[in-house]
């Protein structure tokens, strides 16, 4: 049974049967697919310091965004990199995907490493985005993860996947 449908997600409640035979009611959130991209520079990475209203604060994160209908992950990655970080990638390397919180959602975020960056004339943040783009050195990102400054899961995954330079 559908509980809610919005622009970027829908929520359903349904009876499920677990592999051990137990039946239960479950609420599952179904967002559109998403991507996250780690733009690699000569000295480190382009990261965003972005205000996130759901947590009521600025957080450090990799550029990311939701897939449009009919768009594949690599197209979304190219578009979001330009929209959020103002750069285009000469080379986008797929780095797998993650499930964000599989206890209640089937959200999948496709991960990409972006190299051979060039400034883009198409840079245009969405009106509801409050973003600063920062070039952060590799050493600084390591320290920022360790001290909790970077606490965004998709970004930590990307730094782990792509952090070897």
Automatic annotation (TrEMBL):
Keyword field: Hydrolase
Nudix hydrolase domain boundaries: 30-158
GO molecular function, one term: pyrophosphatase activity
Protein name per Swiss-Prot or TrEMBL: NUDIX hydrolase
Recorded superkingdom: Archaea
GO biological process: nucleoside phosphate metabolic process; ribose phosphate metabolic process
SUPFAM superfamilies: Nudix
PROSITE patterns: NUDIX (PS51462), NUDIX_BOX (PS00893)
One Pfam family named in its UniProt record: NUDIX
Transmembrane segments: none
InterPro entries (UniProt xref): Nudix_hydrolase (IPR020476), NUDIX_hydrolase-like_dom_sf (IPR015797), NUDIX_hydrolase_CS (IPR020084), NUDIX_hydrolase_dom (IPR000086)
Cofactor names: Mg(2+)
């Amino acid at each position: 049974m559908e509980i809610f449908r919005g622009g970027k997600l829908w929520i359903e409640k349904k009876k499920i049967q677990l592999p051990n035979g137990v039946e239960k009611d479950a609420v599952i959130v179904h967002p559109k697919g998403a991507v996250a991209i780690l733009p690699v520079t000569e000295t480190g990475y382009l990261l965003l310091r972005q205000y996130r209203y759901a947590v009521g604060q600025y957080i450090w994160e990799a550029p990311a965004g939701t897939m449009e209908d009919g768009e594949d992950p690599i197209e979304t990655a190219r578009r979001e990199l330009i929209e959020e970080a103002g750069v285009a990638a000469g080379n986008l390397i797929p780095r797998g995907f993650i499930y964000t919180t599989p206890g209640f959602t089937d959200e999948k975020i496709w991960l990409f490493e972006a190299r051979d960056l060039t400034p883009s004339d198409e840079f245009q943040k969405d009106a509801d985005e409050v973003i600063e783009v920062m070039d952060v050195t590799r050493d600084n990102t390591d320290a920022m993860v360790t001290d909790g400054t970077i606490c965004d899961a998709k970004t930590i995954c990307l730094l782990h996947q792509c952090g070897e330079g």
